[in-house]
Amino acid sequence: MAEHRVELIELDRPIGDSDHGENMDRGFRAVMSKLAEAPPETPGAALKLTAMTLMSKVGGAAGPLYGTAFLRAATALGETTDVDAATLAAALQAARDGIVVRGKAESGDKTMVDAWTPAIEAAAAAAAGDGDVRKVLLAAAEAAEAGAVSTDPMLARKGRASYLGERSIGHRDPGAVSSALILRAAAGAAE
Amino acid sequence: MTVRLVVVSHSAKIADGAVELAAQMAPDVVIVPAGGTDDGRIGTSLDKVLAALEQPGDEGVVVLTDLGSAGMTAESAVEFAADPGSVLIADAPLVEGLVAAAVAAQAGADAAAVKDAAEAVYRPPAHPAEAAHGHQQPPDVTADFELVNQAGMHARPAAKIAGGLSAMDADVTLNGADGASMTELMMLAAGKGTVLHVEASGPDAAKAVGYLEGLVTSGFGEP
To answer: Which residue(s) pair with B199 in the sheet?
Structure first.
């Protein structure tokens, strides 16, 4: 777990805007040290510890957003130690729903929701297929990456970027990119 | 004890300054700043907000926030709070909302009324013409009082009126302005000699009008 958090931080660094990259880096470093300090017994417990740490340490909007996402995913997994494809897809859906509830953003607002919504749709489709968890995560990561790219022409309607109005067009949403990085790191860890 | 207030801001200075400002008008209200990150940077901290929420008191808590993610951190903190039902988050501009909330809390309003007082600063002012000619029930009690103090309806009188009325179960307008909204009262820009037409409805209508009479005719205790 700690290993793929490191990957995520390194992937995030070049693309984060000054604040987001810094905040995400700090947050996930704290997650790594927490996970190393007391390795959780279940995937759910690991997600919950991640959630609490991100909420405390990130500082920016990504803290409560990712914190809520990981927390809802943890709740969806419960005590299970053997996560199958359907459970995983449900946990990803719970994560996306948590982000929507917390951030009140909709698809097309140029936010991380634009990465997460295609990701959970792809994950659900993959889970309905041959039920391989790695394929579920891979499908989610690929869809999130495409979703992040799709934010380029969007006009930001939520978050700090919305203050820029028209000037937000042409830039990729950092939250959508970091979301894709998280899912890609998860897919990488599962391989 | 009154309702407690918590200020969640990205900046410790903003949180501290807003608390300092509001405390002037609400000396008995506990207002706790939760600004900045744990290590003193710009941002919000779940731990700081949780610590502010968990301070003792059983009258409920109303949270005021600044930019978007402060609201999200506050919502997250409420989910983790020992008694989430006792915490309300007001959707209001931080400084104006906090002052209005503090004044209402000082007057003994409950948490829901304190939240309403904060959020009332957002609402567009009622139009006197509509209030007079709208298709509403006639008010339970009406009265007219002349402003006799030199400065007229400035911040302190508006705070006294809004604070007192927000703790009562009555809908009150003064020349069409919402009596529970400090901002609307100040926007009347009513000077000395202005006659305030009061319309009150609800169980506490008579009490509210009596309260206003005492305040306005005594010049709010001012020259």
So the answer is: B142, B173
> Do the chains contact at B42 and A59, CB–CB below 8 Å?
yes
* CATH number, domain A2-190: 1.25.40.340
Whether the ipTM is more than 0.85: the answer is no
Question: Inter-chain contact B76–A55, Cβ cutoff 8 Å?
Answer: yes
Q: Last residue of some domain: B74, B91, B120?
A: B120
Same domain, yes or no: B141 and B91: no
Does A27 lie at the interface with B, CB-CB under 8 angstroms?
no
Query: Could you tell me if A65 lies within 8 Å of chain B, comparing CB atoms?
Result: yes
Note the pTM of the prediction, 2 decimals.
0.71
Query: Are the CB atoms for A152 and A144 separated by under 8 Å?
Result: no
Answer left, alpha or beta for residue B84, where phi above 0 means left and psi between -120 and 50 means alpha: alpha
Looking up residue B133, the CATH number of its domain turns out to be 3.30.1340.10
Structure confidence by residue, pLDDT tens digits, A117-154: 999 999 999 999 888 999 999 999 999 999 999 988 99
Q: Are strands B195-201 and B171-174 parallel, antiparallel or unpaired?
A: antiparallel
Catalytic sites of B, residue numbers: 10
User: How many domains does the structure of chain B reveal?
Assistant: 2
